[in-house]
Design a protein that fits this description.
Layout lengths: L7 H5 L11 E10 L4 H12 L2 E5 L6 E5 L12 H8 L4 E9 L3 E2 L47 H5 L9 E6 L19 E2 L19 H10 L16 E6 L8 H8 L8 E4 L1 E2 L12 H13 L7 E5 L20 E7 L17 E4 L10 E4 L5 E5 L2 H18 L5 H11 L15 E2 L5 E2 L10 H9 L7 E16 L4 E7 L11 E13 L5 E6 L5 E5 L12 E8 L9 E9 L6 E14 L15 H11 L11
Parallel strand pairs: 6-8, 6-9, 7-8, 9-11, 11-12, 12-13
Antiparallel strand pairs: 1-3, 1-4, 2-3, 5-10, 14-15, 16-17, 18-25, 19-24, 20-23, 20-25, 21-22, 21-24
Helix pairs in contact: 5-8, 6-7, 8-10, 9-10
Length: about 625
């Protein structure tokens, strides 16, 4: 059994309220009954009040999702009459109308579809006709790429690992489960359509094939091998489930929550290639029920080992920051960025300190050289792109790891990602962010996290892996009270901590670190935040966002997260630097900063054998054994 997450309730309370200007209300309602009445009682309430019962919320026996067919699914005012109708029912304890909000697919491109091509046989390689275009699986330098810059999946396959008995749910606009390259790897029992509330998550037809997104993602994970159709999936013997949940005018908290909590013991991995609008001015994340679903998934899913939630980091480019996306920046998710086939970051890649690793999206010389995968109606495409394409590749790699070791918990996957991802030849084309070494010798980059996933290395290490020690969280300190910030100079706030030494929640070896911050300014987009650890690792936890003109909402208890201090020792002085990067005078106030440390009390990796003395595992183990590391300070910018 995986170790339970300590302090989940505290972290839940840190979910910030979001700006709701021009709020939209749907025809969906949350209803909580007075007691555990079950579905029959809820159905009776629905019939008495003129509503339809959609489903329980996260399997609850007293919380339910209702809909009223007579109401518009998007209106600017709450329906007081319909809400009152529910509230006056003697069995109803709480009822409220659900607001709607936008969630966008990442990496959508206009229609560009190709027919199935003739069979092309490649010696010892998969015989699928599009395998030659799948440079992210085997990069031989095709299309101007850099040879051997790929996911190294052949090294995993050579170990006899292909994803058997692992299911990845594609949470998206549906999956063409009748596609000949997907139908034999489709897990119907684990699939559901939350947009139409039925068992058949088939994409809704549009002339421009807008709803091809989920089918393309599914093919990256589990397209079959050697069947003369399209290409091959990273984990071609694994299963995919379709969860259709993006295709309605507005998203609601209950649709998201039930999607992320659907069949958690049948689904191992949830892959999400969407999020809040990537416009460089939005600050948004999961609401209450959705956060509950994710936390429940990592604590209880996979029969206690924890579900793995893979998230695309975002397509807002250098004008956005994925730490403003509460899904990608969550500790419970694995945030994946992308690189192109010569090692550069893609122009749409967002940077942030919460990104754990990277996979691939576009070609460098030919922008149409994207990811080759399945498309709607039995077709294939070579133009899937964006961090949308990156996240399912990561899900496929994780599926390989889960076959290699069925006892891996959700945190084991994150540790394996940190230890086996490679710098390879990834680089920032604009030379803003360099590779830097943290206090225990782990190399990271603000764009790429700990590097590109290496399926062969992850599978090899997974086979000998020992579950990491129990995870604790420590509220390490807090600074409260208004402190002015301006463009004239940065301010530095310091918290000295023992990391809860001597208590039941002592943290000695870091995983995630959060700076939970409340501030406002005359222009939110000019705020920059840096967090420096006691071992000298400096993380940019918020960058300038040129499009963010907010002067009212600011940040309210927003949990900025960094993975850059992974494995470090947290005791000592942490420094938060707050500045306003603007050519015109701006000002503001930071009202509160709370430092949250997450990690283990016991040293991880102690029981793992080291075969390569130069590996990340060997470096970190030696650092932990000595505990007197001299920090090699890299040039961050």
């Amino acid at each position: 059994m995986g170790a339970l997450v300590r302090g989940a309730c505290l972290v839940l309370s840190l979910a910030a309220p979001f700006a709701r200007s021009a709020e939209v209300f749907t025809n969906e309602f949350f209803v909580r009954l007075h007691g555990p009445g079950g579905r029959d009682s809820a159905d009776a309430v629905a019939k008495r009040t003129g509503f339809d019962l959609v489903a329980p919320v996260l399997g609850s026996d007293h919380e339910f999702h209702f809909v009223h067919r007579g109401l518009s699914n998007a209106r600017l005012k709450r329906s007081i009459a319909h809400t009152r109708r529910l509230k006056v029912d003697p069995m109803v304890h709480v009822a409220y109308q659900l607001p709607g909000f936008k969630r966008v697919k990442r990496g959508y491109k206009p229609l560009n579809v190709e027919n199935l091509v003739p069979h092309i046989k490649v010696e010892s390689d998969p015989t699928d006709p599009y395998f030659q275009y799948q440079w992210y699986l085997k990069n031989t330098g095709q299309n101007g790429g850099k040879a051997k810059l790929d996911l190294n999946v052949e090294a995993a396959w050579a170990q006899g690992v292909t994803g058997k008995n692992v299911t990845t749910a594609i949470m998206d606009d549906g999956v063409d489960y009748m596609h000949p390259d997907l139908k034999f790897n489709y897990n119907a029992k684990a699939s559901y359509d939350f947009s139409s509330n039925d068992q058949y998550p088939y994409p809704r037809y549009t002339d421009d094939w807008f709803n091809s997104h989920g089918t393309r993602c599914a093919g990256e994970v589990a397209a079959a091998r050697d069947n003369d159709i399209c290409g091959v999936g990273v984990a071609y013997d694994s299963k995919i489930a379709g969860i259709r949940m993006l295709d309605q005018p507005y998203m609601t908290d209950l649709i998201e929550a039930n999607s992320m909590g659907h069949e958690p013991n049948l689904i191992d991995i949830y892959s999400a290639s969407w999020g809040p609008t990537d416009d460089g001015k939005t600050v948004d994340g999961p609401r209450n029920a959705t956060m509950r679903a994710i936390v429940k998934g990592v604590n209880e899913g996979r029969n206690g080992l924890g579900n793995i939630y893979v998230w695309a980091s975002g397509d807002g480019g250098e004008e956005d920051d994925c730490n403003c996306d509460g899904y990608a920046a969550s500790m419970w998710t694995v945030s994946i960025n992308s690189a192109i086939n010569d090692g550069q970051n893609a122009h749409y890649d967002e940077s942030c300190s919460s990104t754990l690793a990277s996979t691939f999206s576009n070609g460098a010389k030919d922008p149409n050289t994207g990811v080759a995968t399945t498309d709607l109606y039995g077709k294939c495409t070579t133009t899937h792109s964006g961090t949308s394409a990156a996240a399912p590749e990561a899900a496929g790699v994780f599926a390989l790891a889960l076959e290699a070791n069925t006892q891996l918990n959700w945190r084991d996957i994150q540790h394996l990602t940190v230890l086996t991802s490679k710098r390879n030849s990834l680089f920032d084309a604009k030379r803003r962010f360099h590779w830097t070494m943290n206090g225990v010798g782990l190399e990271f980059n603000h764009l790429f996290g700990f590097g590109v996933l290496d399926a062969g290395a992850m599978v090899a290490l997974a086979k000998q892996w020992k579950t990491v020690p129990a995870r604790y969280h420590c509220e390490a300190g807090s600074i409260k009270g208004m402190q002015k910030i301006s463009t004239e100079k940065s301010i530095f706030l310091k918290i000295k901590t023992t990391a809860c030494q001597g208590s039941d929640t002592q943290v000695n070896y870091l995983e995630h670190v959060q700076a939970v911050i409340t501030l406002n300014s005359t222009r939110r987009g000019d705020v920059e935040l840096f967090l420096t650890s006691p071992m000298g690792t400096r993380s940019m936890i918020l960058s300038k966002r040129a499009n963010d003109n907010d002067h009212r909402d600011g940040f309210t208890k927003w949990p900025f997260m960094t993975t850059h201090t992974w494995g470090e020792y947290p005791q000592g002085v942490w420094t938060l630097e707050v500045s306003l990067n603007s050519k015109t005078p701006q000002s503001g106030y930071i009202k509160e900063w709370t430092l949250m440390l997450h990690g283990t009390s016991e040293a991880p990796y102690t029981d793992l054998p080291v075969s390569d003395p130069h590996s990340k595992l060997a470096i970190v183990k030696k650092a932990h054994e000595e505990r007197n590391i001299v920090h090699v300070k890299g040039n961050y910018f």
